[in-house]
Write a structure and sequence with these properties.
3 copies of one chain form a homotrimer.
Chain A (H helix, E strand, L loop, with lengths): L25 H5 L7 E7 L8 E5 L2 E8 L2 E6 L19 E3 L5 E4 L5 E4 L16 E2 L1 E4 L2 E6 L16 H4 L3 E10 L2 H9 L4 H4 L14 E9 L2 E10 L1 E4 L3 E4 L26 H6 L5 E4 L3 E5 L4 E10 L2 E10 L5 H31 L12 H23 L3
Helix pairs in contact in A: 3-6
The complex binds FE2/S2 (inorganic) cluster (3 copies).
Chain lengths: 394, 394, 394
């Protein structure tokens, strides 16, 4: 008979191998709609125009609109009768008007600055408004700060991966709406366990074998945690079950030794910008769900943006620290192969698993140190943030 | 950060401009599925035939069937095992039979008058039945009375707009299922604020400008409330924001002065039947959601029929008090233009807003005196009705 | 006004004809997802292959997979992160592997026997597992035992209709997913009342009339209950309503007298295997929802398999106790006519009613002795089962 965990029953049950629930991570458990108090990428900058558009981030309805070159974000609900402002348009410079009765809001502060259908002396003018959000543009995208408790937004550069702040680079990427909770997407991204098995059939790995299993540590450094591989095994004999390997006659020979830049062996030549960073491992993760996979010549980032409890937005970006003519080669390669093989089919296998993952209950195993380290990072960071908020004079 | 009203939190918050919730109108607030104790138009008379059809009014499932020229309404649920009677058919004159086991109900009183599969001596015959509803036919439609507490139906003519009871007229109309609560549809209909702005782009108004804003009073008279315009403004300068007008070079000049028959100026000639009514304003509303828009030569009515909390039926009727050959001209005009422009595209803009309105919370503004007057009318009428019911011996 | 039964209000209301609710059958009332502690047919044996497939029985997710000729059933949820095992495949003989991280389970006992991505010395190996289910193959189908409280499965032959255990036979059938609760399907199958009326228009009955009404008893014998017809009426005059008959000029004359093998009259010749059973009536029912309709030359069975509270699986089987060359004739007849007319169109009318039945509340009538007898059987059988379970040392 199927055993199901009753809510709250976990503590009194005999201990089973692996952790059963998320009670050690109460803040993480509560973050089904995402962690507030962070910058999130929302859409490509080129998609934000004078016509307002609707987005949902951390369960919050937001409209983005561009005026005179600057992007603005407002809460997407007219305070009059609840109609989405994203259905309206611009009637005056620097404003957006609700489609229903023409309530007109100042884009810079959300204040009701004119009420078309009640005339210039409308008594409610200036007395109400809609919440606004801090906006920034980075990596060709519009980012919005979703506050935790009404606080001002910190500079976005404090949250971006450090190497993206001061170096020149070229990039390609995709933004996809995806089914499933953002935490499953994020855990999938940093997960030590699955890639070698799930992606064994991906075209991206057609000529390169995957290991069978690794011994992995997780190493914190600054606001990042890194997966560091101590052992890499290319074959395995499972007693009483059989032999298993990812090697095939048509694939390249696996590299010798372990490696922590790229996942295919110690590279001959590493890009100088990347080398300078001295990353302790090729896969790293930081709050609020930013994955960095370092290859010898480029870095791949994934941002897992919470939409609501059942949906997230996958933002995948490939960055190359090139200048001048070399950038053209990158774009050709990205559009011709990377975008399709990696950002498409390979990560489509991940999207599939993220959609069907269903936990807790769960039973964790040795490689899941990657997951528990991430949850611990999320938990302690949030605990500190909340404590700091309480300590501030209100 | 987005502020959300917590339930019950309204009273203790500092007062913001505009009313925040519907607590001043408890009966109105509770009437999500409609006010019971009224006649409602359900469908065109020609659609009610010997084959039973299914409808929902005020959340109640009803089947309509015609027998020997008369329309009948029964609760659409066989008391045996709950199968809808509207899936059955007529096996004997004056009856409807359930499709499953042939339980047969008398159309005049809903009594189980024969049980085909249990023979003439079936012990349950005559002992059970289905509720029936009073039915009337007016304006080419079948109307059903949805009782409040089992009371007998009052004459429908007491509820119909007075001018439709004793005058000859021709009419055209449409009945459309629409998304959204019936109250938003009704409030939209009588709403002073939106028409000038929302409908500025409608083809119906292609050559006639709309005002920018008005000063409006609401005047009660009998069971109706009327919007009366004291000021009409065709241009406006919004300080620090800009100029706005509905005038265009290709549109007619706006009329001088205010007007309260039709919304396009003081007419040269008014239809004698309409003139005789002496309506104080061109837009009026009565329970349980009947809108009357008076033009010089015709009257447009809208009935907002509650289906359930999320759906209503829009019944729009255009009436012309003509006789003889003049009626042919009306039908040609209605079918050629009015039906498409007014009952179609113009009111499609309303349907769109009704579907996306989301209140409370809400913040009302000066023109919303039309909404609060309507809610007050609904509230006090219902309070009196309920008091009268309690006063009766039970 | 529509009267609705309030929950719990039944006992204090004045008694109305017919039973109102299912409070006399508490176990039956609780069995919305089916009775556990029985064997259920799931799918055709030929559909169970080396590629795992997903099924739901009694609300429980189950995956079926065949290995080396034997079918296995496992709970369809990987204990690691909740991914369905039916999305995985076989990496080693006698096992199934989860698609996400390659956790590998022994098909015979559900134990985690290898963890591909954690190597041969994975500490969690052998420590966790998935529940398994007893499996049998009968009538060309895979059957699964859904336990009540972790008990071992009894032999399936104790539950199969007795005549199918030791006799040779040929068969044809269909398995269809259907909307509606399994109890409505089961009650519909044994229901004395509806067939004569609902199926009057079915092609299967094109040339044979149906009675109007019967007087029926229900007779228990062993674990079966039988409908026994004492009177069969071919015409009826309903006082004040009209005359009704199923006879038509193009149909055969109805038979004389009553009959209890087949429903079309006393047959000239009955198959010897069928004759030997001495069935007291042509329609019989046993737990957990097995219907048997006995015709002179064949028996038709229906198994109503609970999927969840709103869906069931209809399994219809036509059996002929033939041997040798005569079997070919049966298959030709089944595929040419029976499958389409009977298992298709005729039972499609039943599927329609099962989908729209909505009870309780309900008001039962005389022929519903068939339903109440069935519910009493289900109720008392379950009461005994539960008592026996409690009496066992735990
Ligand atoms: S709902 Fe936005 S102006 Fe009225
Ligand atoms: S459900 Fe209507 S007659 Fe049986
Ligand atoms: S979810 Fe099944 S192996 Fe991880």
């Amino acid at each position: 008979m199927a055993r199901r965990l009753e809510e709250g029953a976990t503590r009194t049950r005999p201990k089973l191998p692996g952790r059963q629930d998320w009670s050690s991570w109460p803040n993480y458990d509560a973050a089904a709609e995402g962690f507030r108090g962070y910058w999130y990428p929302v859409t490509w900058s080129s998609h934000v125009t004078g016509k307002p558009k609707a987005f949902t981030i951390c369960g919050e309805k937001i409209t983005l609109i561009r005026d005179n070159g600057t992007a603005y974000a407002l809460h997407d609900r007219c305070p009059h009768r609840g109609v989405p402002l994203s259905l309206g348009n611009q009637q005056f410079p620097g404003t957006v008007s609700c489609p229903y009765h023409g309530w007109t809001f100042d884009l810079t502060n959300g204040k009701l600055c004119a009420v078309i259908t009640d005339g210039p002396d409308s008594p409610i003018r200036g007395k109400v408004g809609v919440p606004t959000y801090a906006v920034a543009e980075r990596l060709g995208m519009v980012w919005v700060y979703v506050p935790l408790a009404g606080e001002a937004a910190p500079p976005i550069d404090e949250q971006l991966p450090e190497e993206l702040v001061d170096n020149a680079f070229v990039m390609g990427g995709r933004i996809d709406p995806r089914a499933g909770n953002w935490r499953f997407a994020c855990e999938n991204g940093f997960d030590e366990g699955h890639a070698k098995y799930l992606h064994r059939t991906s075209l991206w790995r057609l000529f390169k074998p995957m290991p069978v299993w690794n011994i992995t540590r997780v190493v914190p450094e600054g606001r990042w945690i890194y997966r560091v591989q101590d052992e890499v095994h290319w074959e395995a004999d499972f007693p009483g079950v059989g032999h298993w390997t990812g090697k095939r006659w048509w694939k390249l020979r696996p590299p010798k030794g372990t490696f922590n830049v790229g996942n295919t062996g110690t590279p001959k030549k590493v890009d100088p910008v990347i080398e300078k960073q001295g990353f302790p491992g090729f896969a790293s993760l930081s709050m609020p769900g930013v994955l960095r996979i370092v290859y010898p010549k480029f870095i791949h980032y994934e941002f897992y943006v919470p939409v609501d409890a059942d949906n997230h937005r996958y933002v995948g970006v490939m960055v190359n620290f090139l200048k001048g003519v070399a950038t053209a080669r990158f774009y050709a390669k990205y559009l011709g192969a990377i975008r399709w093989l990696f950002h498409g089919q390979f990560s489509g296998q991940d999207a599939w698993m993220v959609d069907v993952t269903d936990a807790p209950p769960e039973k964790l195993y040795r490689p899941d140190v990657s997951l528990t380290s991430w949850r611990n990072l999320a938990e302690s960071t949030t605990r500190q943030k909340l404590a700091a908020l309480k300590g501030e004079p209100s």
